[in-house]
Amino acid sequence: MSDRRRIHAGELGAALERELTIYGEDITEAIRDVTEASMKKLVKKTKATAPRGKRNGQFKKNITADYQQLNRRGKRSKGQFRGRTVRATWYVKAPDYRLTHLIVKGHETKDGGRTRANPFLQNALDEVLPEYERNIEEAIKNGK
To answer: Cβ contacts of residue 66 below 8 Å, gap of 6+?
Structure first.
């Protein structure tokens, strides 16, 4: 037996709103999970392919990600709006954050030469983003 209820015409709007709210929460949770998994994969790939450096691989050790739950206005969440969306940010901790741009774009040396660019971040993004987009589409189609 199904667990269907009869809904009168006057209750239809409230019933639809309730079902769409549940669906929206399920989608939001699925997107949050997919985002966190993809960010973890991006951090792992960039740590694996980042240049080692002179200080025992300190640059690699400082690669990390931050997850912030935001409300509708893009502010950090509090109270009833907690967890509406998540913002995942890839970054390099201090003091090595200054090196990221120089490594990825290349830079001039003291003797007038130029270093080669190392696109380790873009290569990792090129691998992770298509899968992330597929997983988001799948989460929206399946509703979970």
So the answer is: 88, 89, 91
Burial zone of 82 (CB within 10 Å; 0-12 exposed, 13-18 middle, 19+ buried): exposed
Q: Are the C-beta atoms of residues 33 and 39 closer than 8 Å to each other?
A: no
In tens, the pLDDT along 37-76 reads 999 999 999 999 998 877 667 888 899 998 776 655 555 5
DSSP state for residue 84 in the 8-state scheme: S
The DSSP secondary-structure symbol of 61 reads: H
What pTM, to 2 d.p., does this model score?
Answer: 0.77
Nearest CA-CA partner of 95 in 46, 33, 53, 32: 53
The structure tokens listed for 122 are: 């873009």
